[in-house]
Design a protein that fits this description.
single chain, alpha+beta, Aminopeptidase, 5-stranded mixed sheet
Length: 359
Amino acid sequence: MHELSRDDARRLVVRAQLLDADRPGDVIEVAEQLGAVKIDPTATIAPSEQTIPWSRIGWAYEPGQLKKAVEQDRLLFEYDGHFRPASLLPAHLARMRGRLFRAQASAWLEANARFRADVLAQLRAEGPVLAAQIPDTSQVAHKNEAGWYGSNQVPRMLELLSYVGETAIVGREGRQRMWDLGERVYADVPVLDHDDAGEILDQRRLQAAGIARQRSPWTPVGTAGEPASVEGSAWKWRVDPAALETLDDDPGGRVAILNPYDGMLFDRPRLQELFEFEYILEQFKPKAQRRYGYFAHPILLGDRFVGLLDAELDKKKETLVVTAVHELEDLDAEEREMIDAEVRDLAEWLGVALAFPGP
C-alpha cells in the first residue's frame, strides 16, 4: 500500500495529464499518454480536439498536425467521439467485437436488418463516403427523445455499427465524418483476447489518470496499478507505479487553460476529492443562472484550479473577446501575470488579437 500526501496525489494527476512544465513534443505523444482526445463541435474558443493538444504542447502545436496524424500517418484513429492512438486499436477492436447492445438498440437494429445490410453494402461498394451520401432505407425510426439525432436514421446506424467494428471513421471533410467498412479498415489489426484487451485499456486509463479511485464509473481502472491511500481521503485508490517512480523528478508547474471537455476534468468526484474543485459546466443552464459563463475554461496553476476564463472567439473581427477571468482564490501579481501571459499565448495561437469589452 502506497501512502501518498495530497500534494503528491495532485502532482501525479497533473504530470499524468501532461500539464506540468515538461511539455510534450507533438500530438502523438499527447494521445499516447492520455489515451483519448475528446472531439466536440462546441467552439466558443476552439474545438476540444484542438485546445486539448494546445494546452499540453503550447505554441508549437498546429491544428493541421492532428488531421495528418489521423488521415495520412494513421498514428491516430477516431472512435466513439475521440481521437485515440493506433497502439490502442487492437484492444478497442477486441472490445468492439465483444460488445452487446442494450435492449432498445438491439430491437432497433433487428427491426432495421434490411437497412443495416443496405448501409454495409454501399460502404463495401463505394466507401469511404459521407453519411449524407447514404440513402435512408430504414424500416423503423429511432425514438429520438433526447434530441441528439435528426429524422435521418443513417448517422445512428453508422454509429451503432461502429461500436461493434462493422463500420469505421477514416477521416473528415470539415466536421463531416467519412465512413468505410470496418472489415476493410481493420483488416490488418492484430486479434486480442477480449479480457486481455480490457486489462490493457484499464492500464492505459490509469496511465492517463496517474491515480484513480479503485471503483469509479468515471475512471474505471479495475485492478490495474497498485493500491494506495491519500492523506485525508477515505477512498481506496489505484496508482500507476511508473508514475510513482518519477514522482521526485518534478519539473515544476505552469498555467494551463483547459477546454471544458478536457479529460483532466471528466472525473468530477476526483476533482473535488483531490483538488477541492467543484466544476459545473454552465452550458445547459439558463443565461440568468450562469455565474462564470456559457463555456468557461478552467485555469490550472501548478496543481491548483485558481480561475475560470470566460472568453469567445469573434471570427468576423478576428479577436478573442475576454469577458472575464474569474478568480477562485486570492492571487498575487506574479500569478495574475502568468495567467495573462497564457491568455495572450492562446490568442496568438489562434492568430487573433485580444479584446476586452468595456463596462
